[in-house]
Amino acid sequence: MANIQEIARLAGVSTATVSRVINRHPYVSDLTREKVLNIIEQLDYVPNSNAKSLKNGATKVIGVMGVTYNPLLMSLVRSFHMISQKYGFNIMLFMTDGDRDKELVALEMLRSKQVDALLCLVRTIEWDIIESYTKYGPIVTWQRLTSDTIPSVFMDQYQGYTLGLEYLYARGYRKILNVYSSKGQNTLERIRAYEDFVQKHGLKNTGFPQFHNKVTIHDGEEIARWWIEQTDKPDAISCSTDEVAAGILTEIQRSGFSVPDDVGIMGFDNTDSAHLLDLTTIHYPVDKQAENAFNIIMSMLENSASNLHPLQFRLIERKST
Amino acid sequence: MANIQEIARLAGVSTATVSRVINRHPYVSDLTREKVLNIIEQLDYVPNSNAKSLKNGATKVIGVMGVTYNPLLMSLVRSFHMISQKYGFNIMLFMTDGDRDKELVALEMLRSKQVDALLCLVRTIEWDIIESYTKYGPIVTWQRLTSDTIPSVFMDQYQGYTLGLEYLYARGYRKILNVYSSKGQNTLERIRAYEDFVQKHGLKNTGFPQFHNKVTIHDGEEIARWWIEQTDKPDAISCSTDEVAAGILTEIQRSGFSVPDDVGIMGFDNTDSAHLLDLTTIHYPVDKQAENAFNIIMSMLENSASNLHPLQFRLIERKST
């Protein structure tokens, strides 16, 4: 098989230049790159990247674990993908569906050096097991966590949810229905925010049920049908996601009710659906979170300082409240 | 460092069983797996997957090239991811933005055996260059292509677009504005469909401009503002995507016009936005396309026959026409 010396000789360049072309180093002229690539093509030379990985220990691949295809997480993955690619990294997605075995696959790939680092979006496995893998490479999480070994880019949901509730209060809403997503730490924080809000303003118990595990448009439509049937109706609905809010808004309107005249609706995340439907919502700076996650990983891989964005929720007032 | 023989001895099982556990083969009892994994954990044994890949030549990773985060492509990627994972494959995403160099990175990873196969969603590089890589592993595309070496799961856009146009005609629309996406083969097919449609029904030239490279909600909002300004208005708009249609619909309604009374709007793809906004659209069975793409890749990797879904566009009539 052809080797790098032979390619260098035929191209009339140094082996270092051939290596730069193979490793897609930017500082090679187009002409030289073209020449080297042509010879590589003629010789049918395959740089053995597995052997290469064995040598330098880096795959230039970051695993993203706990992928689900909802709009918020996809925004995060897109931003993370964009910045990773800018620095020459590819990403490998692990869709885990809360399945421990699938999470272990991702962790084992870090251990066996098939990925250089992991971004953990959602997990079921206990944190101490995940922590035991940090000796194999950086693990950064999006979930709320205080750990010496796993940095987190989480945002304080208590603060974000309170922002929405206080706005609803200021607009005169007093009978607020809460719709929550899956029962993780973030939801517990939102529940705590609501309880403190009720106490602060001395609101009486609405008697409304709590909705849990609601995240999609279809979930929102179901809640709208519940709302329509009530005689004592909530005057506002604070939603887990914009998709739930969008489902509620459109289904309520289909039944001839008017928003915000009959009920105020508040989304969360500020995704495209909120923009489309003029939903009041809480802007979630996932792009900045993604960049922070990448910067932390880079700083851990390179033993350097990381430069992080400040992260803040922001109220976006539109026409649904 | 610990080796597989030592693990087998300590666990009281054969080396083949240890190997099955390491390679996540399904036919191992939970008890045995647990026992082996515990010993692996105690010994801190790292199966060297790079060396392993060198030996068996399979990484169990499929590259997806040409990723963009629009709803249709994300549905495709999600379905492809789900079926891949079911068969023990992970996916690696390459966001290429029509950049040849980034496309080459993906192709080179196939050549250097870092991925077992490639699903090519969008590409800029000439097909004959891509074909030259098929000797390194299966490449399947989503784009329209007739090739002996690169199977395609494309769907006939001429047929899908005609379905929409004929429906609009049957509903009485005669002055149709067309909004197209990027100028690829699919758009050329849609343009051809419109030209044949006009000729078939003897429609006169509307004199409307053709909109190109329009795919997002914001693109749709721009087109809505154009529509509002016209004195001789189109009576229907046939859109490249549901997102464009959603942007047009909502922006036109914000300005006090009514849909479909003032203008009929037709989407394409049948994504969540179309459902939310009651948009008439063309259902695009991307989930089935994704499964076909995976099945073709598997049949090429395993030299077996592939079992493919029939693919067909379908008109979804809602309230925007």
Automatic annotation (TrEMBL), chains A, B:
PANTHER family linked: CATABOLITE CONTROL PROTEIN B (PTHR30146:SF105), LACI-RELATED TRANSCRIPTIONAL REPRESSOR (PTHR30146)
The protein's GO terms of the molecular function aspect are: DNA binding
Highest rank taxon of the organism: Bacteria
- Keywords, alphabetical: DNA-binding, Transcription, Transcription regulation
Question: Would you tell me the protein name for this molecule?
Answer: LacI family DNA-binding transcriptional regulator
One Pfam family assigned to this protein is LacI
Q: Which organism is it from?
A: Paenibacillus amylolyticus
Annotated HTH lacI-type domain ranges read: 2-56
